[in-house]
Design brief:
Distance between the termini: 35 Å
Strand order of the largest sheet: 1-2-3-4-5-6
Order of helices and strands: HHEHEEEEE
Helix content: 25-40%
Number of helices: 3
Strand content: 25-35%
Number of strands: 6
Radius of gyration: 13 Å
Number of domains: 1
C-alpha cells in the first residue's frame, strides 16, 4: 500500500500545467457517459482505460460532478480528483493520504 501511495504521489507531483487539459478532457468524457445519475459508479480492472492502468490507477470513481482517479482506497486514500465547478471550469486536487493534499489547478492565487 505504501508503495502504491508513493507511485500516485510521485505522478501527481510531476504534473505540469499542460497536463491539466488532458485530465479535464478525460474527466469530461467520463462524466458525459455517466450523466443523468446521481449514483457513484466505479470503474475497476479491465474497465480502466489502458493509459490509466499504466499509471497504476486501481479504480475510477464517477461522481455527479467529478471524477476521482484512485491509486489507493480503503483505510487511506491516494487520488487525483477533477471536479466540475458550479460557475464553470474545473478544480483538480491531489490527495496523497487522508491527512495531506493540495489543489493543483487552478493554481492558488490566480
Amino acid at each position: 500500500m505504501i508503495r502504491q501511495m508513493k507511485v500516485g504521489k510521485v505522478y501527481m507531483n510531476s504534473l505540469a500545467e499542460k497536463d491539466f487539459r488532458t485530465w479535464i478532457s478525460r474527466s469530461e468524457r467520463l462524466l458525459s457517459q455517466h450523466s443523468g445519475t446521481n449514483d457513484i459508479s466505479f470503474l475497476r480492472d479491465a474497465n480502466i482505460p489502458p493509459e490509466l492502468r499504466v499509471l497504476n490507477i486501481k479504480r475510477i470513481d464517477l461522481l455527479e460532478d467529478g471524477v476521482r482517479y484512485v491509486w489507493v482506497g480503503g483505510f487511506d486514500h491516494t487520488c487525483l480528483s477533477v471536479y466540475r465547478l458550479p460557475e464553470g471550469g474545473y478544480r483538480i486536487t491531489a490527495q496523497y493520504d487522508d491527512s495531506h493534499g493540495r489543489q493543483l489547478w487552478p493554481k492558488e492565487g490566480r
